[in-house]
Structures are given as C-alpha cells and as structure tokens.
Design goal:
By secondary structure, this protein is of the alpha/beta class. The protein has 9 helices and 13 strands. It starts with 5 loop residues before the first strand and ends with a helix.
Length: about 325
C-alpha cells in the first residue's frame, strides 16, 4: 500500500506553480519519498486587484490563506515566495526550509531597450511595489510611476501593449519562468536594494508534523537561511505594522555575514542607509538585523514609516 500523498499548497500563478513544482521535485528526489499532490489556493492578494495592496490594511496578502489551509490540515506543505511571508508566522506553523536563493536583484524591462538613465523625462514606469516606487522616485524624480498588477507574463504583455514605457520586476521570477531574455538591465543593489528575501522560496509545515518536516527540512539551504534570517529580523524590527519602502540584502563573504539596508521616502526625497557584519551564525544573523533596524529608527526611519501609513490611509479612505 502506497503512503498518502504529501499535499503541497500553492497559489495558481505561473510563478507560484513553478516554485511549488520545484519543491515537489526536490522532495520526490529523496529516497522513499511519498507521492506529492499540488493544491491550488486563492489568496487575498490574487483577489484584490482593484487597489494597490500597500494601501490596504493588513499583511501576508499572498500567504495567509495557504497557511490557514495548512493549520486546517487541508494541505501538509505551504510553498511561498519568502518575500511575501510575514515576519510573524501563523502560530502553529514553522519555516521548515529556505531553498537556495536565485538572483535577488530587480530588473528593468523597457519597451524600447533603454536603461533606466536613458528613459525620457515623464516615461511611464510600472510597479506595484511600494519599495520600487520610492527608489524609482529617488533615482529619477522626472519619471511617471504607475501602478502595475497581475502575474509576470501579464505585466510583460501590458508593457508590450504600450501601457508602460518600462516596468520593474524581480530577476528571479523572470529567470524561473524562462523570461530573462526580456531583461533590459539589472538595477544596482546599491541604488535599488531588493525586497527582504527576494529570490528565496520558503516552505512551511505544521510545527508538530514530523513527517512533513522530515521531507522538507532536507531542502534547507544554509546560505539562504542565514541571509534571509538577517533580512527578516531587520524587517520585523522596522516595519511597525505597515509596509515600508525598505530594501535589504545580506551576503556571505569569506565566512562572514554582511547586511546592507536602505529606507526611502515615498517621494524619493530622502534615503537612509545602514550596513554591518557579523559571524555567519543564525543567532548572530538575528542580532545583526535587529541592530541595523535600531540604527535606522534612530536616524529617522520612523518618520518615513509614518508618512507611508498616512498616505495609505488617505488612499484607502472612502
């Protein structure tokens, strides 16, 4: 008699399915692994296409329904883009694996093949990310930054149709979907620090589910776990209950963990930066992220966060 299938919960977008299938294949490659089954789950982020998500109260727009299905035992494994996963996990779940990280950089895709500095004044640049919108405004105050929603292929099609002159997307998603040929240029991590955990896949299981943990924990990548732990600890300390125009990137260099972070005003008028290093151990990664968050808050990041909350409330008001 064959063992019961390990049910993997995922969104139904092309990128989410790629990630879930990648996890499924990695599990199936293990000796004596159980069969796997994908379960498609719709999330609030998939349904709320009428307004920018950063104007909507709450968090985990693309993950909470999947994690709740996990707790309800409707699935056994939850696969997420780690950047979408709240820093406070649903009680009763644990982040069992962070898979090897893909290129974390942002990419510019322009209709005419122009780099960011070559776009004409007033060029229409699409992005749904509060972080990208702020850093775009900091780099080019003359651009017209417009809201852009939809899955990756849909966003590219909107660009090709002429709705935008350029769009900004995650390099990782484009590479995973075989669309990296559309990339005009990669944006510098100094000027455009990526979203926390961008390029990483996170896999959650129920905290007491030893069977699922057995198969998923084997997928954990040490480098990805260390770097994203530092970034997520930073965000957890800074975010203060709302989305923040913050970018961060941790890297391992000669056995040491380095973390760089920047917070930007929504209109691009000011930017705060911090950086630091620590031994490449999980406990030190958490302390490094927290330390840099305190530095940012002490230098004025709280004011920028308050501005974001105020703008979000104004946009969301009836």
């Amino acid at each position: 008699m064959s063992p019961p299938a390990l049910r993997i919960g995922t969104r139904a977008s092309a990128l989410a399915l790629w990630q879930a299938r990648h996890v499924a294949a990695a599990i199936a490659a293990q000796t004596d692994a159980p069969p796997v089954e994908l379960v498609h789950i719709s999330t609030e982020g998939d349904l709320r296409t009428d307004v920018p998500l950063w104007t909507v109260g709450g968090k985990a727009f693309f993950t909470k329904e999947i994690d709740r299905a996990l707790l309800a035992r409707e699935i056994d494994v939850a696969v997420h883009s780690l950047k979408d996963l709240a820093t406070e996990l649903e009680p009763g779940t644990e982040l069992a694996a962070v898979l090897a990280r893909e290129d974390p950089r942002d990419a510019l895709v322009s209709r005419g093949g122009e780099a960011l500095h070559e776009l004409p004044p007033g060029a229409r640049v699409g992005s749904s990310s509060l972080r990208r919108r702020a850093f775009l405004a900091h780099a080019r105050r003359d651009l017209t930054v417009l809201e852009l929603r939809g899955n990756v292929p849909t966003r590219i099609e909107k660009l090709r149709s002429g709705a935008y002159d350029a769009i900004v997307l995650a390099t990782a998603g484009l590479k995973r979907l075989g669309l990296s040929g559309h990339i005009t240029s990669h944006l510098s991590v100094d000027e455009f620090p990526p979203a926390v955990s961008q390029g990483a896949i996170g896999v959650c299981v129920r905290a007491n589910d030893g069977e699922a943990l057995r198969w998923v924990s084997a997928l954990d990548d040490t480098a990805a776990r260390l770097t994203t732990t530092a970034e997520r600890a930073l965000l957890k300390s800074v975010e203060a209950g709302c989305q923040v125009p913050l970018g961060a990137l941790a890297t391992l260099v000669n056995g040491e963990l380095h973390l760089r972070v920047a917070v930007c005003a929504l209109d691009g008028s000011s930017m705060l930066r911090a950086q630091g290093s620590a031994p490449a151990e999980l406990a030190h990664a958490v302390r490094l992220g927290e330390r840099l968050s305190y530095e940012l808050l002490a230098s004025g990041a709280q004011r920028l966060i308050a501005e974001v909350r105020g703008v979000g409330n104004q946009v969301a008001a009836p």
